[in-house]
Amino acid sequence: MTDITVPAGLWNDGDEAAISAWLYADGDAVSEGSVIAEIMVEKSSFELTAPASGILHIAVAAETPVTAGEIVGHIG
Amino acid sequence: MLDALAHALAPNAPIARGHGEAAIAEDERRLDALLGEGRATEHVRLWTNSRCLVTTRRFACMESFAEAAAASGARGWPVFVRASGGTTVVHRPGILNFSVHDVGPADAIDITSRFERFTRRLIAGFAAIGVAAETGSVAGSYCDGRFNIVSGGQKIAGTACLVRKRGGWLGVLAHAAISIDGDPHADLAAIMEFERALGLDIAYAPACHTTLAAQIRIAR
Question: Would you state the pLDDT for residue A53?
Fold first, then answer.
């Protein structure tokens, strides 16, 4: 299993970030490098890419606040 | 007016007359092309679009999106999806789009300062044609955010940003949709009908919006 981790260092500490949308469903096959979710900080969209190929397992639902370094899913 | 502002924002950039989805997709295509060059670079794009609503991937994932988009299209407002943040906006003749693509090393780019630099550029462009503007949220405006461009207390432009990483490079697309002229009432009606069909409980106020034409009339 490969962790899907919210990247660090892209926005200021204290800015509220949330997964605004998963672009694949739980259980879908994804390819390494494909954009699988977007994280929104105010009106800036940060693309979350798949760190590996495999089956997507979503651990944190859309519209949920997240923090840098947080694990939001797995690919296995 | 559109030409004067365009020249103030980017003197050497032509204004591309776009049509629908292709015009919107060009912003992402350009960002990907610049990321593929593997060097720090900036590109400016001035463009207009045909009449449409442009919404976000978050809204496109909603259960009633297909039906809401079809109904909006039947009313003369086709719906397209963009990758940057925010909510639904209007594109049409009378709205100038200003996009800045900025690529740099992933460990050296500060998103917030890039976005603030983008909005300062917009404000300077307005000042150059005699219109005072500032950034700020406008309660009751559509696609609200603290980096709106505001003139006379009303929203005159919305801004949004997309951040995309490829290898060791980070690309930032910052873009603005600037109301040059036209009828904000009609714009808001189209957005609200679409977003309410998605199941969203929203109410935007026309009084929160202005155009460059209106601000120039006020200034005279």
Answer: 97
Contacts of B52 (CB under 8 A, 6+ apart): B20, B77, B78, B79, B80, B90, B91, B92
- pLDDT reading at B108 higher than 70: no
- pLDDT over 70 (residue B75): yes
Instruction: Bin B47: left if φ > 0, else alpha if -120 < ψ < 50, else beta.
Output: beta
Structural domains of chain A, with CATH: 2-75 (2.40.50.100)
Q: Which of B157, B156, B145, B142 is nearest to B194 (CA)?
A: B142
* pLDDT band with cut points at 50, 70 and 90 for residue B2: confident
Rg (CA), chain A: 12
Give the three-class secondary structure for B50. coil
Q: Residues of B114-136 as b/e, b for ≥16 C-beta within 10 angstroms?
A: bbeebbebbbebbeebebebebe
Q: Which residues in chain A touch residue B164, judged by CB atoms under 8 angstroms apart?
A: 47
Tell me the nearest-neighbour CA distance from A20 into chain B, angstroms: 6
Give the distance from residue A45's alpha carbon to the nearest chain B alpha carbon, in angstroms. 5
Q: What is the three-class DSSP state of B56?
A: strand
Q: Which residues in chain A touch residue B147, judged by CB atoms under 8 angstroms apart? A: 42-43
Q: Which residues of A touch B198 (CB under 8 A)?
A: none
Residue B66 pLDDT: 98
Q: Do B83 and A38 touch (CB under 8 A)?
A: yes
C-beta atoms of A42 and B164 within 8 A: no
